[in-house]
Amino acid sequence: MASSSSISELFLLSVILTLLLGSDAGGIAIYWGQNGNEGTLAETCATGNYDFVNIAFLPTFGNGQTPMINLAGHCDPYSNGCTGLSSDIKSCQAKGIKVMLSIGGGAGSYYLASTEDARQVASYLWNNFLGGQSSSRPLGPAVLDGIDFDIEGGTNQHWDDLARFLSAYSKNGKKVYLTAAPQCPFPDAWVGNALKTGLFDYVWVQFYNNPPCQYSSGSIANLEDAWRQWTSSIPAKKIFLGLPAAPAAAGSGFIPATDLTSKVLPAIKGSAKYGGVMLWSKYYDDQTEGIVIESDSKNALLLVSNWKKAPWKVNAVLNSICICLNSLSRISFVHVLREANNLADYLAKQAGAYEELLSLLVELGGEAFMFACLSDWDHVSSWRPDVLVF
């Protein structure tokens, strides 16, 4: 009986998106800064997976408070320990990646008391993170590309004023990009008025932790309805689909990779305002890194784990596969019952059968890796790359 294999969803979500998003399909935005175990900013940009990095967060500002950045375990702002990030920021920008400062967040002390307060906050951001001058820039001399509004508390007043003041600084030379991360219920309770200004370049809507407008139980109806409302009502240049990078990254709203690529993205990327996908966060994106190859053929798994004992007809191919896979940080092979191989069955039907073991060359993070389509040697199914191109 023919068997087939599948690559599980425990696969770095940003890598899947990098492989599958075409040049006309936008980019990936990631939040970095809230977990000291997520790697450095430079390492994040070096993956080649992201087009935007939001440094999170500046959670204290406004109403006369002394602004204070909080980057969790990465550095200590109280001792000016975050100024070393300047070289990382410049490294990211040299790769064409836009680096934003995200203000607000889910926890913090921030709100704007008046239009004048908004003006003062804008002045502080310009002089300390953007193109202005200050003797105490928290992230050093590097000039960030813009400000991200992740406003989830305080009041809904004067964020439109802040956007206008920040946007006005673009007249001084380098453009100040404005982005926002509203919740998917429309209009957003906090920055809804600010988004009406038309000053925001990119808006990554959080389609999670909000059951009425997110993916749930295989259904994309609520998400699709909300997406249409956002793209038809907000005068932003591009709208992004905001998602948790792993199930643990949010209370709800995680979308399995197969559903994301086969159902959700095909349904929304036809919009002229589709910009790509935003992921929360780099730490959680890392948690899904690695590949699990599943097969219902115990013989195939045994041969891959001990390729030197394989029949001579497939020995050379297995040797090449194993050498390439050794470069991955985490790789495992799992035996599953055929009933669990729905994805593999679908791909097998699309690809057809071959007599020899085939392999698929995939560009993964800038390096080439060979993936075995594990199966019985008398009937092997291949995974065609174009099956997942949409």
Automatic annotation (TrEMBL):
GO terms of biological process kind: chitin catabolic process; polysaccharide catabolic process
Supply the EC number(s).
3.2.1.14
Q: Which GO terms describe its cellular component?
A: extracellular region
Q: Where is the signal peptide?
A: 1-25
Which reaction(s) does the protein catalyse, per the Swiss-Prot or TrEMBL entry?
Random endo-hydrolysis of N-acetyl-beta-D-glucosaminide (1->4)-beta-linkages in chitin and chitodextrins
GH18 domain segment(s): 26-304
UniProt keyword Signal, yes or no: yes
What GO MF annotations does this protein's record show? endochitinase activity; nucleic acid binding; RNA-DNA hybrid ribonuclease activity
InterPro entries membership: Cts1-like (IPR045321), GH (IPR017853), Glyco_hydro18_cat (IPR001223), Glyco_hydro_18_chit_AS (IPR001579), Glycosyl_Hydrlase18_Chitinase (IPR050542), RNase_H-like_dom_plant (IPR044730), RNaseH-like_sf (IPR012337), RNaseH_domain (IPR002156)
Q: Which family would the database say this protein is a member of?
A: Belongs to the glycosyl hydrolase 18 family. Chitinase class II subfamily.
Q: What is this protein called?
A: chitinase
